[in-house]
Design a protein that fits this description.
Elements (H helix, E strand, L loop, with lengths): L4 H8 L3 H4 L19 E7 L4 H19 L3 E7 L2 H14 L5 E5 L3 H5 L19 H4 L3 E2 L2 E2 L1 E14 H6 L9 H11 L14 H11 L18 H15 L17 H4 L4 E5 L2 H8 L1 H5 L3 E4 L1 E2 L3 E12 L6 H11 L2 H11 L2 E2 L8 H5 L1 H8 L4 E2 L7 H17 L4 H18 L1
Parallel strand pairs: 1-2, 1-3, 10-12
Antiparallel strand pairs: 3-10, 4-5, 6-7, 6-8, 6-10, 6-11, 9-10
């Protein structure tokens, strides 16, 4: 659900003073996390969905936490990513922000900029084997505010049998080869390439990064995607559509659970995520058994694998900060991360988990971990929560209609600049 700008500004502005009091019980209102871990705290999470997820979190993960910290009581508030924005900003406006929050990549700068989140000790960044690029979205203004848990990557999967039949021996090295292969692989009702079965915002961002572009300047104060790289990325979608190699109207809805175009043979290549492997196991295991699915990282001027996921962070004014800090650290520990990744068929955010049986059995998860050096993340500005909602509706008319790529990117740039100026 898209938040209104008024609600967001109220929550992050005038409402912040009341909001950061936290909703855990106790006698203090903030302070050091160096004391004993005790008291009652709350956790807001958009993952651990369904009865299986709830059982995993409350019995297994939090069960282990209670054994280690018997004087801490954790109350869990479940939500979805669709509702998470509204849930957090409403809590901020009402002064009932949870002590510990799990939120998406790109979300740290907007809330850290208003001092809603507590900085974490830098020592936590080296406690486990994090890929540096995976930690970047956890930082703001040089400080660590969150820790990665599970990740979701964006990559290109392809049908090895379609490649073999077309005489294609290796994945494309750049967009010129990708476009040519897409034309060659288009046959009958089969698309050569389906880039649109993931969210259009994330799809364009992946192509932007692969084209050597960036969303924003390093300090998050200037728009960077209007320098031509963003236009070229969007134009590439239009070129594929004009070739007949891609069709926005034929995308599959990954969230609906239906077999994808890649599974049904209606696309030879497809932008997808690491979660596809679980779908293959459940719906079309023969594609795995016959080793018909391959993957590659999108590249043009550079390789780029968009990496989202879930970060865990702490309220700046938890009344029981030591207990909140302990829970943040526990949820970001290897055992907790691996359990969450297995339950959701996602990528564990630690390189040290590469050798686990879960990773080795899920080839797209394994592939993602092997290519974390190409990881790129969305966000990077305190204005991201407003800007992110504008990307798809602004770019879509260029993909499905007659609007030029240059015009669409220029408008998106103006919207982003306005949002940044208001910060």
């Amino acid at each position: 659900m898209e938040l209104t700008r008024r609600l967001l500004l109220t929550a992050l502005g005038a409402g912040t003073a009341a909001a950061v009091t936290g909703c855990g019980t106790g006698s203090s209102s903030g302070g050091s996390a160096g004391g004993p871990a005790e008291g009652e705290i709350s956790l807001l999470t958009p993952i651990f969905e369904g009865s299986d997820g709830k059982k995993l979190l409350e019995q297994e993960i939090l069960g282990g936490f209670r054994k280690k910290h018997p004087d801490v009581k954790v109350n869990v508030d479940y939500t979805t990513y669709t509702q998470l924005n509204e849930k957090i900003t409403t809590a901020l406006a009402g002064g009932l922000l949870p002590d510990v929050l799990m939120m998406g990549v790109g979300w740290i700068p907007p809330f850290a900029a208003k001092k809603v989140l507590a900085p974490l000790p830098e020592s936590l960044a080296t406690r486990h084997d994090y890929e540096p690029r995976v930690l970047e979205p956890s930082r703001y203004d040089g400080k660590l505010y969150a820790l990665p848990t599970v990740m979701a990557t964006r990559l290109v999967a392809y049908r090895k049998d379609h490649f073999a039949a077309a005489g294609i021996k290796k994945p494309p090295r750049d967009w010129t080869e990708l476009r040519a292969m897409a034309k060659q692989l288009t046959k009958g009702d089969r698309l050569g390439f389906d880039p649109f079965s993931i969210d259009l915002r994330q799809c364009w961002e992946t192509f932007l990064y692969a084209n050597g572009g960036s969303l924003f300047s390093a300090d998050g104060k200037k728009v960077a995607f209007t320098d031509g790289r963003g236009v070229e990325a969007l134009q590439f979608f239009k070129d594929l559509s004009a070739d007949g190699s891609a069709d926005y109207a034929k995308k599959t809805d990954a969230d609906a659970g239906a077999p994808t175009n890649l599974q049904t043979g209606k696309a030879a290549m497809m932008m997808t995520g690491s979660g596809l492997w679980k779908q293959l196991q459940d719906q079309t295991p023969e594609l795995i058994e016959k080793d018909l699915i391959g993957a590659f990282v999108l590249r043009n001027r550079r390789p780029a694998m968009l990496t989202g996921g879930t970060l865990v962070t702490q309220s700046a004014r938890s009344r029981n900060p030591a207990a909140a800090r302990a829970l943040v650290e526990y949820l970001a520990a290897p055992d907790s991360i691996l359990a969450a990744a297995e339950q959701r068929a996602t990528v564990p955010g630690l390189r040290e988990l590469r050798s686990t049986s879960y990773v080795k059995k899920n080839k797209l998860v394994d592939f993602s971990l092997q290519n974390l050096g190409s990881a790129c993340a969305e966000g990077g500005t305190p204005a991201w929560m407003e800007i992110r909602e504008k990307i798809k509706p602004t770019l879509e008319p260029a993909v499905v209609g007659g609007r030029s790529a240059k015009s669409a990117i220029a408008e998106l740039g103006r919207l982003a600049e306005s949002a940044i100026a208001r910060m």
